Amino acid sequence: MTKCFTFLLFLTVAFAARAQTQPAAATPAKPVNPNAAKFQFVEEVWDFGEIPEGPQVTHEFKYKNVGKEPLIMSNVKASCGCTTPGWAKEPILPGKESVITATYNTQGRPGAFSKAITITSNTTDETKVLYIKGTVIKAEEEKSTPVKAPSMLAPKTN
Questions:
Q1: Which of 19-28, 51-60, 86-95 comes out lowest in average pLDDT?
Q2: Do 78 and 117 touch, CB atoms closer than 8 A?
Q3: Global pTM?
Q4: N- or C-end of the chain: fewer Cβ atoms within 10 A?
């Protein structure tokens, strides 16, 4: 009888342990709003190619709201401080177009670069990422001629 009791106790513990390791039921996905605002970009990656070091370069990412509700961007953030984004703060109505600008400061940044601009909005995807890239060509350093002090130029008279 104790063997039977021990066996039943073992089975109970085994089933209880198995029940604990079962994956939880999947949480239902966020319902997709068929009328939600939606971006349609002309391009999502912009390659500046080779650009000289020094000036700031800017690209406008053109888009259209192809959804049925106004498109509202709550934030547009660049991946670093060398890139400055700009965007429309007012809602973009369905069917209307606008731009998101990305300005990259090349000063002191020679070499290849790739930067992300992350958009947080009321679209179905909630976030969208745009990219700028290119190669900054190092500026040639100016060769300076040492300037002689005026006392060195004038002949000495004694």
A1: 19-28
A2: yes
A3: 0.69
A4: C
